Design the sequence.
C-alpha cells in the first residue's frame, strides 16, 4: 500500500490503491465477459462436444489436456504478474481467459446434454457466493493473507486427488466438489484481500487473473454439483 498517498477518510485506502482496485475489477469484468463470449463461441461451433467425445475415448487425453492447461496457466500468470508493460500483462490475462474457456468447453458440452439450465444456475450461484465473499472481504478488517499457506497445501492435496482419480479411474463424488467450492471460496477471500491490501498497484491485470481463476474454479465445481444432482434425479 502506498502510505505516502493521500488517504480517503472513510476507506483508509490510498488514492493509488483505490484506483488500482477499480482497475483490477474492470479487468476482472473484461475477463468474465471474454470468457463468456469465448465459451459461447466454442459451444456454438461444436468444439466442446468434440472435446468431450475425444476425452471420453481415453483418460490420458483428459490428463494431457489438464496438464497443458496448467502449463499455459503458469505461463499466463507469470506474464501477468511480472511483466512491466500493461500490454504484456493484458496478454497474460487474455491467454489465461482463453485457456479457461477451452478447459470449460467439454464441461459445458456435458451440461448441454444432461441439464442445459445448470449452466445459468451455476453462474448465478457463483455470482451470489462471490458477491457475498467480496462484501465480507471489503467490510471486515481481517487481512486474509494467513489463508495463503493453507490454500497452497490444500491445493496440492486436491490436485493429487484429481490426478489420482484420472489415473486409477475412481470418482471423487459430489462431496469432493462441495469441498472444492469451499476451497474456491477461500481463494476468493484471499485474492480479494491481496487486491485490497498487498498486490502491486501497477499490475491490475495480474490481480484480476488470480481472482478470475478462483471464480472460475468455484463455477467449475458448482456446475459439477448441479450436474451430479441432475444425473441422480434421472
Sequence:
Amino acid at each position: 500500500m502506498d502510505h505516502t498517498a493521500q488517504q480517503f477518510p472513510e476507506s483508509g485506502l490510498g488514492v493509488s490503491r483505490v484506483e488500482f482496485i477499480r482497475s483490477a475489477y474492470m479487468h476482472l469484468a473484461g475477463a468474465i465477459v471474454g470468457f463468456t463470449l469465448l465459451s459461447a463461441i466454442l459451444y456454438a461451433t461444436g468444439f466442446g462436444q468434440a472435446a468431450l467425445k475425444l476425452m471420453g475415448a481415453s483418460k490420458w487425453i483428459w490428463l494431457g489436456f489438464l496438464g497443458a492447461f496448467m502449463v499455459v496457466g503458469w505461463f499466463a500468470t507469470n506474464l501477468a504478474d511480472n511483466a512491466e508493460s500493461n500490454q504484456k500483462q493484458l496478454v497474460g490475462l487474455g491467454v489465461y481467459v482463453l485457456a479457461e474457456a477451452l478447459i470449460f468447453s467439454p464441461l459445458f458440452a456435458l451440461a448441454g446434454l444432461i441439464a442445459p439450465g445448470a449452466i445459468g444456475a451455476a453462474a448465478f450461484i457463483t455470482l451470489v457466493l462471490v458477491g457475498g465473499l467480496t462484501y465480507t472481504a471489503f467490510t471486515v478488517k481481517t487481512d486474509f493473507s494467513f489463508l495463503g499457506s493453507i490454500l497452497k497445501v490444500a491445493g496440492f492435496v486436491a490436485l493429487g486427488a484429481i490426478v489420482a482419480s484420472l489415473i486409477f479411474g475412481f470418482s471423487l463424488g459430489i462431496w469432493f466438489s462441495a469441498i472444492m467450492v469451499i476451497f474456491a471460496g477461500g481463494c476468493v477471500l484471499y485474492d480479494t484481500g491481496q487486491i485490497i491490501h498487498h498486490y502491486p498497484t501497477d499490475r491490475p491485470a495480474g490481480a484480476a487473473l488470480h481472482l478470475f481463476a478462483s471464480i472460475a474454479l468455484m463455477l467449475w465445481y458448482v456446475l459439477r454439483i448441479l450436474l451430479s444432482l441432475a444425473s441422480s434425479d434421472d
